[in-house]
Amino acid sequence: MTSKAIPLPNLAGFTQRNGNWYAEEIPLSDLAKEFGTPLYVYSKKALTEAYQAYDKACVDSTGKRRARVHYAMKANSNLAVIDCFKKLGSGFDLVSGGELARALAVGADPKSLVFAGVGKSAHEIAQALQAGVKCINVESIAELHQINRVATKLKCRAPISLRVNPDVDAQTHPYISTGLKGNKFGIAYHEVLKTYREAALLSQIDVVGIDCHIGSQITTTAPYLDALDKVLELVTQLKKEGIEIHHLDLGGGLGISYGDDNPPDITEFTNTLLNRVAERGFAHLDIVLEPGRSLVGNAGVLLTKVEYLKPGAEKNFCIVDAAMTELMRPALYEAYHGIVPVQTKQVASSTYDIVGPVCESGDWLGRDRTLAVEEGDLLAILSAGAYGFVMASNYNTRPKPAEIMVDGKNAYVIRTRENVADLFASETTLPN
Asked: Which of 84, 135, 156, 359 is catalytic?
């Protein structure tokens, strides 16, 4: 089988020069030599440029701010990554008590935090209220009443927004679609008005906003506009009933190019949404954007070493030291990532499935890739900055890799590599 010719994505922080791949000003081969493999490498330059592309559209021609970015931490929650965004002015979208703790650990302003997630525990709700978050996004009527009970016990007010499920097809992988009526997320569109009425009557609830998030890795603007129009219609109806909405959370989900994907330009996309809000007469609202993947996806790569080249009767296998434990997306979604040799070599090329050492047939990172490599060579798995390390596991008792942030000519260890002893340090055997 021949390899499909798919173009490489545009990588702001990673370039190929004279046959060698670089993270900003440092050869990837040098990073692998110093820190080992598998290894996650991020570019501060790429993170910064992606954020600024959003922020450019968030300020109008007069300098007035018309929206704010709240980075979706679930995409990549490393402290150095979120601290970078905090220093650029970002707020944060959180989906767990753990992510709340991470945001507070880097000194994020609690009023810049939106707490989302479909299954918040009473403890997590209490943590959010005690921290003083901007808003808690409500995913069900049952959760609304739980928030009210927790707020009553704490003798505080709970600022809430309802997450609307608009039943809009985001045209993405079914596992990462969140805005269809068959998905677990949000409150059904036909139930939203009733739920807001109920929220307005609860003793400790302050209705402050409305939220919508329709999925991830979305590469067209149309689904967003469809969802936005539906949400704005709700805002209009709520106002007629005396329920005032102060902020509009448009969610995130904009995709990146992994190869032949063609998502809209970040600034152009954001302008399209914000212009629609203004055209509909809602520019006075506090607008929240929650990008994740589009900020970090193409700002990271996963480095891995070729352990063995294994010819087969039907397929050739390139066995590497990374696996589904380091990068789950191919096994979970059959996701495509560009894979390139870190150093170009004048050797014969062959078509390989790139696979890891984990004992699962689903442990693959790329299929039918034409590569000119030898055992001991390094590969870079591209577009690995989002939903990479955060979804890593210790299956097969494999230690998680280190993470490195490159800033120009400097490389910083932002997470040390685990060792095997770390993995069972908290375990005990039964007494004799």
From this structure: 359
